[in-house]
Amino acid sequence: MRAITVEGGRRLRGELTVQGAKNSVLPILAACVLCGGVCRIRRCPRLDDVETCGAILRHLGCRVCRQGEDLLVDSSGMDRWDIPDDLMRRMRSSVIFLGAILARCGRAELSYPGGCELGPRPIDLHLLALRRLGAEIDESGGTLRCRGEGLRGTEIVLSLPSVGATENAMLAACGARGTTVICNAAREPEIVDLQRFLQKMGAEVRGAGTSTITVEGGRRLRGCCHRCIGDRIVAATYLCAAAAAGGDVCLKGVDYRHLSTVIAALQQAGCRIVSRDRMIRLTGDGALRGICPVRTAPYPGFPTDAQAVLMAALLRSEGTTMFVENVFQSRYRHVSELARMGADIRLEGRVAVVCGVPRLRGAAVRATDLRCGAALVVAGLQAEGTTRVEEIRHIKRGYGDLAGDLARLGAEIRETEI
Ligand code: UD1
Question: Distances from the Cα of 105 to the Cαs of 51, 157, 216, in angstroms?
């Protein structure tokens, strides 16, 4: 079993280019099946979730090959419309293939998706969107059997702006005849990236980034080349790491406007941050202060995916900070692990209150999910002694080389076999 070992107390210094966004690349890889041609996805991070997408695409009969930072997907030979249960369980995003396969093949068969344990993660809105487009979905026996040979454009109103449901609706709508309007759509930058990709394929999609997305379906699609946006959550992780450890770090390849709430929180905590276009520089001495309540919300609110790493950064801050998790029901599994390192966090339902402590001590801790793992590493960078983060398979789902990147910035951190 592999672990990440961190010796706390080193400052971080240097420059880093942030990887392509996981949450962009996964729906884009699913979208590749729409065109029946060759797509080149540039800046495709090396992540376990990307591997899983590759395995799904190959199972469907597509050819997938990596060329350095690029992934090439040829969906011309696609001859299946099912996804085996073991691939579905590996990640939540496997469900985005549903809309794409349905649009391409007129049918799809798959089981319920897996992914990080963040409380119940229903897919009712995904299914509602597809049913609105005319798909018939049989959910008996844990398998989703979908038929939709004649999907028709319509209005889809999402009761909450689910990222995945918005993406599934966009992909399926590309294969529907006529106009689809998605209301209360998610506004995340990754949705905008998906729209740009679909447009390059020849699809008529507009409105991404706002709450109303319109798709004129039935266009002839072709292969294309697309470069993914930078990963704002990975960037948030490195900013929180630098804020906690102190130092001077410059991140490149990510749009600072995608991180405005994270940057504002770290500035309030006492960090100096300057940013322009695709560069963010943080300087700080590691001494932070508590900040106004952090309430997670759909974009452009504070990202739920950055809640754990910001919390970890504030563990030694002067004063207290309240966190309110509004997106997922149970996204505080990092709290009990952080407590093993001496953190003082009071938890009640959706609210966690961090009371800064003078010092953290290294400990053996366990990544229970992807962002929990990243938060434990951020805590380890500022703890006295050695922290060993176990179960790093969760981290590898979303970070290409977390330990390597932080080591390049001067942290004493490495991956070890235990
Ligand atoms: C995406 C991100 C994930 C991020 C999340 C919220 C990807 C691959 N993953 O996940 O990193 O944490 O957005 O920003 O992009 N919900 C329902 N019914 C549904 C769908 C969702 O009730 O059919 C609820 C969920 O339980 C959750 C909330 O809506 O409470 C938001 O979920 P959603 O936006 O769908 O997140 P994901 O697309 O799964």
Answer: 23, 25, 18
Distance 164 CA to ligand 1 centre (A): 6
Structure tokens belonging to residue 181: 């309007």
With 0-12 / 13-18 / 19 or more C-beta atoms within 10 angstroms meaning exposed / middle / buried, residue 349 is exposed
Average pLDDT of the residues in 16-34: 98
CB 133 less than 6 A from any atom of ligand 1 = no
| Marked catalytic residue, from 39, 53, 62, 116 | 116
How close is the Cα of 163 to the center of ligand 1, in Å? 6
178-183 vs 212-217, strand pairing mode: antiparallel
pLDDT computed for residue 226 by the predictor: 98
User: Which residue from 314, 312, 306 is spatially nearest to 287, judged by alpha carbons?
Assistant: 314
Residue type, 290: G
What's the rounded mean pLDDT across residues 183-202?
A: 98
Query: Helix axis angle, 22-31 relative to 96-105, nearest 10°?
Result: 20
Q: Are 341 and 387 in contact (CB under 8 A)?
A: yes
Best substitution site from 90, 94, 121 to test ligand 1's pocket, by max atoms within 8 Å of Cβ?
121
pLDDT digits (tens, 9 = 90+) for 355-383: 999 999 999 999 999 999 999 999 999 99
Residue 122, pLDDT score? 87
Q: How many CB atoms lie within 10 A of CB 293?
A: 11
- Percent of the chain scoring above 90 in pLDDT: 92
Per-residue pLDDT at 116 exceeds 60: no
Task: State the pLDDT at residue 119.
Answer: 60
Confidence of residue 141 (pLDDT cuts 50, 70, 90): confident
What is the pTM assigned to this prediction? 0.97
- Going from the Cα of 189 to the center of ligand 1, the distance in angstroms, rounded, reads 14
Q: Do 163 and 187 meet the contact criterion of CB atoms below 8 Å apart?
A: no
**Contact (CB, 8 A) for 382 and 242:** no
